Amino acid sequence: MKFFVDTADTNEIRELAATGLIDGVTTNPSLIVKSGRDFKEVIKEICELTDGPVSAEVTALETGAMLAEAQELLKIAKNVCIKLPLTIDGLKACKALTDEGHMVNVTLCFSANQALLAAKAGATFISPFIGRLDDMNIDGMELIEDIRIIYDNYDFETEILAASIRTANHVKQSAMAGADVATIPPAVIKGLAKHPLTDKGLEAFLADWAKTGQSIL
Ligand code: G3P
């Protein structure tokens, strides 16, 4: 499963990119606001921090205006992936952009039928929002499972990009469900490596090693 970082904080991206575990970045208007930075400038910087897809979201609601914004964003870097909302206008823009060979991430997906439409529109990625469904006591992971079945039934190439991930369990469950990508907040990524028994075991190993008085170098 590919890991994208879900943030526009370039310090966080730089730190995680150095681990070699990151395959791309997703942003959205709320994350851009949170960064406090100019949209195009921060996307440019992010595109220099990773070779993978960097999702930059349009803000227009009508297809023509979406395509005009997309052309502006595509000028920033070759790894810009245009993020479009799951609306009829967004799907029309998705078809036009993917027909031209550009990457598109269709976002704000909350149903399997929406995901089916995105695949038919040629989306590179579909972003089902797990956490926001969970917030409404709807099983967000069931959506990932349903989309996986539908996409496999028809060999759709659209990649399932599990989004709105809030916990380490969301990451594990997304991998179990067969998501192609998970876009994960930095804090959740960092937490994936943590386990108290790992810490405890390492401490015990090093304490015993110290007793030997030896060193490897
Ligand atoms: O990529 C979408 C993600 O940023 C949304 O997450 O926590 O706002 O639902 P959240």
Describe this structure in words.
This protein has 217 residues and is α/β, with parallel strands linked by helices. It has a single domain, classed as Aldolase class I (TIM Barrel), CATH 3.20.20.70. 52% of the residues lie in helices and 17% in strands. The chain contains eleven helices and eight strands. It has helices spanning 10-17, 29-35, 39-49, 63-74, 88-99, 112-120, 130-134, 140-153, 168-177, 186-192, 196-212, and strands at residues 2-6, 24-26, 54-57, 80-85, 104-109, 125-128, 159-162, 181-184. Strands 1-2-3-4-5-6-7-8 form an eight-stranded parallel barrel, surrounded by seven helices. The chain is globular and about 70 Å long. The chain starts with a strand and ends in a 5-residue tail after the last helix. 36% of the residues are buried. The mean pLDDT is 98. Bound molecules: SN-glycerol-3-phosphate (G3P). SN-glycerol-3-phosphate (G3P) binds at residues 6, 26, 28, 127, 129, 131-132, 163-164, 183. SN-glycerol-3-phosphate binds next to helix 7.
Tags for this model:
eight-stranded parallel beta barrel; binds SN-glycerol-3-phosphate; 217 residues; alpha/beta; TIM Barrel; globular
Secondary structure elements and their pairing?
Layout: E1 2-6, H1 10-17, E2 24-26, H2 29-35, H3 39-49, E3 54-57, H4 63-74, E4 80-85, H5 88-99, E5 104-109, H6 112-120, E6 125-128, H7 130-134, H8 140-153, E7 159-162, H9 168-177, E8 181-184, H10 186-192, H11 196-212
Parallel strand pairs: 1-2, 1-8, 2-3, 3-4, 4-5, 5-6, 6-7, 7-8
Helix pairs in contact: 1-3, 4-5, 6-8, 8-9
The structure holds SN-glycerol-3-phosphate.
SN-glycerol-3-phosphate is lined by residues 6, 26, 28, 127, 129, 131-132, 163-164, 183.
